[in-house]
Here is the input.
Amino acid sequence: MSKLHPIQIEIYKKMTPEQKLRIAGQMNLDARKLKAAWLRKIHPDWSEADIQAEVKKIFMYAHT
Here is the structure.
């Protein structure tokens, strides 16, 4: 993993805890959307309910 640029570090230092939490929450949602898209691609026969259940399971138990 690459190191953060010094400007990025300064930006994060100036953020409030609420701003950092909002970013973390958005990153989590984005990761779930990406995982769902991947599951749709490899399992085109699965229903949306199946996809969402698998995404939930994957993130609950933190496996791929």
User: Anything to note?
Assistant: Helices lie at 6-14, 17-42, 48-61. Residues 40 and 48 are 8 Å apart (CA to CA).
